[in-house]
């Protein structure tokens, strides 16, 4: 009887979490350090062309769910992700540009986004790393490096990498210059992390801000 009660309570919170939060799919957000740091102060210099920013649950109109969503999940990773052993590649590919420690950045990503989906930290962060390797953006964009292209050329190129699905681009508009830098690339993936899907560029999504401008991947 006790087991059944525990089971029901667990099921109840799972169903609650999914329906209340409205999670629909994930944004795999990747950062181009040179572009991301063009309009803000970055404390860390990272040589990689592309790094992971995060894996963000969004609703069907592509609004990110604002964490912390599930308070009980915060203890899984806080205060210092102590129960979590980061996949070794996280130290290479999931880096912070603005915080003093990568671990602080992961904790922030977990609290703000990870708690809005149902996987535990180990599989959540591993999913991000697998997607990073599978997309392999830096090598696929290498021939577009250090020159200007119409933003739509970038969207098309990246779309081809992810089964021709709609993607989103974020740009840095630097005050006092006409150069627009490619800052982040967002591809959409289902909740299992296995299948790319179209990002829903409903008018309200403010993230895709590159328009049809000439943009630079530096
Ligand atoms: C995209 O977002 C719009 C506006 O919220 C919504 O009506 C539509 O159903 C969404 N499309 C998909 C495929 O989820
Ligand atoms: C998605 O979230 C936004 C912002 O919270 C909300 O305005 C919108 O109605 C939501 N869309 C759906 C389909 O739940
Ligand atoms: C999107 O925005 C444009 C320009 O603001 C508007 O003309 C159009 O009706 C909008 N589409 C939807 C589906 O809201």
From TrEMBL:
Which InterPro entries has this protein been placed in?
Answer: RNase_T2-like, RNase_T2-like_sf
**Keyword hit for RNA-binding:** no
Recite the UniProt keywords alphabetically.
Endonuclease, Hydrolase, Lyase, Nuclease, Signal
Name the SUPFAM superfamilies for this protein: Ribonuclease Rh-like
What's the superkingdom here?
Answer: Eukaryota
Matching entries from Gene3D superfamilies are given as: Ribonuclease T2-like
Pfam families given for it?
A: Ribonuclease_T2
Q: Where is the signal peptide?
A: 1-22
Give the family this protein belongs to, as stated in its UniProt record: Belongs to the RNase T2 family.
Q: What is this protein called?
A: Uncharacterized protein
What is the organism field in this record? Hibiscus sabdariffa
The opening ranks of the lineage are: Eukaryota, Viridiplantae, Streptophyta, Embryophyta, Tracheophyta
